[in-house]
Amino acid sequence: MRAATAERLHHAYLIVGRSGVGKLDFASLLAHALLCEKAPDKAPCGECSRCALNAAGTHPDINRLDWIDNARVISVDQIRKLTSQLTLTTTYGPYRVAIVNKAHTMTRAAANGLLKTLEEPGAGVILILLADNDAHLPVTIRSRCQRVVLPLPEKSQALEWLAGQKVSNPETALEFAHGAPLLARDRASEVDLGAISDVKLRFMGFLTRDFESTELARITADVLGTRDALTLFLQWTTEHIKTAELSAPNSRTSSNGHRSERRFLSRALERLQDALRLDNPSLKTQTVLEGVLADIRIMRVRTRAETVQ
Ligand SMILES: [Zn+2]
Q1: Residue 134 C-alpha to ligand 1 middle, in angstroms?
Q2: 126 within 8 A of 17, measured Cβ to Cβ
């Protein structure tokens, strides 16, 4: 908005951030502010006639591109249509804004099709590309955009927002979405959050005390798929290392027991990372988890034996 006020807006922005962090909402807000009669020095007023058009999704100076019918790609035909629309003069204000959601899924031809517009955008054209991971975008695209990283919000901020969205069990929902609040909201209705928080309690018990790993594998496989389960196990183990203050390697209070615990946990982390990397979708979740958890149990026994020696 400061750039808009100073008339120093870049003609193309690449907004990068994890899935579910709110890139599309952010881009829409930005576009609405640019098109509002009263902005661009602040958020859209929500009262003027152009804001009303935006609220109805019918503002003629804004174009949105997204997957059609869950196509999983942005096609060259979509880009061609967009680039021809961008040559039209604007109806109201100085700007014509285009938002390309999931730009990282543009086909090669689509990305090439967008290049010319990026090189020679028409007057007042502002392109906003959104990408979960911009490593998938060609350098030719990336180098012509101003990159804006949208980070994950603070946990407390995300939890407060989720509570406001009436998500029950916001803590577990946020963990399940790896900290991305919109994803947490959307997935909260798909999974049994109560059951996941029960799995967490048992997993923490497994890490800190001895626990029957077969039973834990069975209970986990009842509510989670392999990837989700392993990702959560990783997250919980990392969290345990942090909260138990086991991460400082040369802390003065570091006892033999602490060091041994640290060694065990870092081995457990490695084992979980390997399992996630080697994830074979044809294997049953319970079978995979049983194997991983049994290995972690053995690691604990071995690490303790090393410490005693
Ligand atoms: Zn307005």
Answers
A1: 32
A2: no
* Residues 30 and 137 reside in one and the same domain: yes
pLDDT recorded at residue 306? 82
Q: How far is the CA of 233 from the centre of ligand 1 (A)?
A: 46
Across the range 121-126, mean pLDDT stands at 92
- Whether the per-residue pLDDT at 250 is higher than 70: the answer is no
> For residues 142 and 134, is the Cβ–Cβ distance under 8 A?
yes
Q: Using CA atoms, how far apart are residues 280 and 278, in angstroms rounded to an integer?
A: 6
**Same domain for 144 and 8:** yes
Q: Within a domain: residue 172? A: no
pLDDT > 70 in the chain, percent: 95
Higher-confidence residue of 180 and 8: namely 180
Tally of residues, the chain: 309
Confidence of residue 246 (pLDDT cuts 50, 70, 90): low
Distance 176 CA to ligand 1 centre (A): 37
Question: How many structural domains is the chain composed of?
Answer: 2
Residue 191 has pLDDT above 90, yes or no: no
- Distance in Å, CA 127 to ligand 1 centroid: 20
State the distance from the centre of ligand 1 to the C-alpha of 195, rounded, in angstroms. Answer: 45
52 alpha carbon – ligand 1 mean position (Å): 8
Which string of DSSP letters, residue by residue, matches 214-265? HHHHHHHHHH--HHHHHHHHHHHHHHHHHHTT---TT-TT--HHHHHHHHHH
Distance 43 CA to ligand 1 centre (A): 8
